[in-house]
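Listing S7. Sequence submitted for prediction.
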Amino acid sequence: MELSQDDAKDFLASFEVDPSDDIKCAAVGRLWESLLQKYPGVPFLMLRVADMRWSLNSRVTAYAMYLDLQRVLKDSSFSAWLQKARLKVLTEAVNTLRTYKTNTSIYTPSQRWRPNVAQDRLPASSCKLQHAEYVVFEQLWSRLTSSGITLSTYLNYHCLETNAIESVLQFNAPATAKLTLEGFSNQAGIPDLSLTSGGIVRDHGQALSILQDTRKAMDEIYKLLENPAFELTIETVCHLHKILMRTNHILAVRVRANSMLALTHVGVTRQHCAINVSVAGKDVKVQFCPFDSVDAELTLFCSRFNELMRQDVDPFAAAAWISHVFVTIHPFEDGNGRLSRLLASIPLLRKQLPPLTVAIPWQSKYYHALNWTRANGDGDYGVLMKLLFEATQSAMEDLHTLLTKNARAQQIQMEDLDEEFDSEEVAMDI
């Protein structure tokens, strides 16, 4: 299989990139990965991608690709190297898994992994918000839409905030307002300086691409729900993750003032790349599902999710269960929080409500509610349900305030320009 003329040109040009430019190197990595999907089985392309993955510590997936390459090359010296590499990769994976499962004392006792977490009790019918709370919520949404704020505008705001709360990227207020109103395409005029230190991505090109991916994933959720018989499967979850994390696959990030390349596996669970993850906060350390059990846990989650959708449950209570179980499994290397909020929005969307949005001011309370629900483990979703409701309601209010202030600032700017123009005319008359 040969590359097309344009793809071959892009591939050859990628070797001219300055290796010290992490942003361009990340783009090259994404190009190579996308070309390999388009042209599977091209030996030189397979070698470049495998070498890149190996250098970025993705040893399991790199080794799998080396094996595929050897089936094409049938090279004896390469075969000898593969034997040594196999021992290294397997030893690392086995030791990592054993340590993760046995060294549980380093995790907060209430936050250690519990198998079959998707079997946690579904929300009871009594777990629900008050009717008056929904009345206020729907009135607020109606006030937003009547003031000219469309659903698309709100979805853009969701995309910005869902990335900000995960410390991926964060724009200042003027840029946030502009992107919320105009979307994430054709925004080359937004300078890198509008990205604050609140996110690891400090390049506006990468940031805008991530936001475009997030919006595409949200749009895909809406498209899936057009089918009244829609049911969630592990394949659908992986498909959504692949859309959501396309740019995050290989990214130039800023960590403690240093720029570096980071590779994240997209569209495949941690079981396929033999990676364990945990999260350490100020006062808590959380242990998620060991990688060898991820697929079984995620399959059970999908089954229980579909069971939940067939029941008459408060949408925010359902969102709380989905958030709790999905985040506790943590099926992917990265992007679990963002994807959990997309999936947890499905019960709301089915009731014609806007999707969940948890903004930066709610970050600490949000994580506390997740940890509290995980520690409780008895099917009490009241704390998390209330948090998701209040955070989303607050996000709608914040969006209205942000856009109102932005409109006022633009009006003042126009008035200042008019005054300046009038002054110039007077000077010319004199």
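Caption to Listing S7: primary sequence and predicted structure tokens for the chain studied. The chain has a mean pLDDT of 92. The beta strands are 250-255, 258-263, 278-280, 285-287.
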